[in-house]
Amino acid sequence: MRRVWIPAILFMLSVKLTAQPWLISMNYNIAFPGNEMSSYITNPSLLGFSLDVRHFIKPSISIGGSFGQQLFYWQTTAWGSMGLGLINSQIRFMNTFPLMLNTHFYLKGPVGWKPYCGVNVGGYYEWNRSEVGIVVFEGRKWRWGLAPEAGVIFPLGRMNLNVGSRFNYLSASNSDIMAGVKNRFYMSMNIGIVFFK
């Protein structure tokens, strides 16, 4: 876990403020597993957050970084096999920690509104765990990933809010922890508070 937080903290501390504006967004995320991943975990994830820091190099273009976490959890009673013969009850977890660089393009909108689209590229630290009685199968690994997104930033009273959606794709894996699921992708919806500096 420390290996995930240290690069994120170093990135935040290395940022130098200049005359160009900065945007900091703290978001709560809800995520839905993709088609192939839903054969392993079907429940949506209500346990997610993300922190984005963006620097405007032009009024309509920003570059920056993003860090977050998304935890999927499911208890199943479906019959299956994980090298132990037939089993009936499993508790399954998939925990991802994306650490990414991003760029965004901002469109013209009503006064104070900033519709945007962008792409995040970087790594996902993935932690999978399946519990079958007292037997635990676990896998932890960094994976390359890609996350296009779109959303809108708008004023609400004295605050600015961010509402958006991100498609998270993790590179293919040969792990048997997730019952042969190689392509991992999920759609996250986020809402958060935005600060401009």
Notes on the protein architecture:
This protein is mainly β. It has one domain (2-11, 22-196): Porin (Beta Barrel). The chain is 7% helix and 65% strand. The strands form 2 sheets. It has an 8-stranded antiparallel beta barrel. A two-stranded antiparallel sheet has the order 4-5. It is elongated. The protein starts with a helix and ends with a strand. Residues 15-19 have low confidence and may be disordered.
Summary tags:
197 residues; mainly beta; 10 strands; Porin; 1 helix; two-stranded antiparallel ribbon
Compute the separation of the termini in Å: 30 Å
Return Rg in Å.
19 Å
* Total E-strand runs: 10
User: Taking strands numbered 1, 2, ... along the chain, how are they ordered across the largest sheet?
Assistant: 1-2-3-6-7-8-9-10
What is the oligomer described by this structure?
A: single chain
Mean pLDDT, to the nearest integer, reads 83
